[in-house]
Amino acid sequence: MSDALKEQQVLNAAERLVAAFASTNTEAYFAAFSEDASFVFHTLPEPLLSRAAYEKLWAEWLADGFEVLECTSSKQFVSLQGDVAIFVHDVRTQLRVAGEESTSYERETIVFREVEAGRWLACHEHLSAVAQ
Length: 132
Description:
Blueprint: H1 3-22, H2 26-31, E1 33-41, H3 51-63, E2 67-81, E3 84-97, E4 100-116, E5 119-129
Parallel strand pairs: 1-5
Antiparallel strand pairs: 2-3, 3-4, 4-5
InterPro entries: NTF2-like_dom_sf (IPR032710), SnoaL-like (IPR037401)
Organism: Pseudomonas turukhanskensis
Pfam family, one: SnoaL_3
């Protein structure tokens, strides 16, 4: 398979992940991650070391009135490393939590792993704040 085709598959996987997040679609969002995925968010004091740990936190957020209003991705870059791909982009997110809206600007790295021919799942996500 050509690198161009693999890169497009990764971009498609990232687009589905971002779209699921943008619509607060819990099932589709977490389906984009492997079970052993890890997460590093600048807003949390420590990493989340499994998808289950993040799903638990996500459920708590939802119970607190968490809703994604909009999420846009820009400045996308893919680096292929065999059956692993590193996807980097800038993210602008509008959220509503307990009735209050906020906008964040972040840079995100998502590591994807090809789990079967043409199927890529995110296995690591790192989110950093971007100064505005």
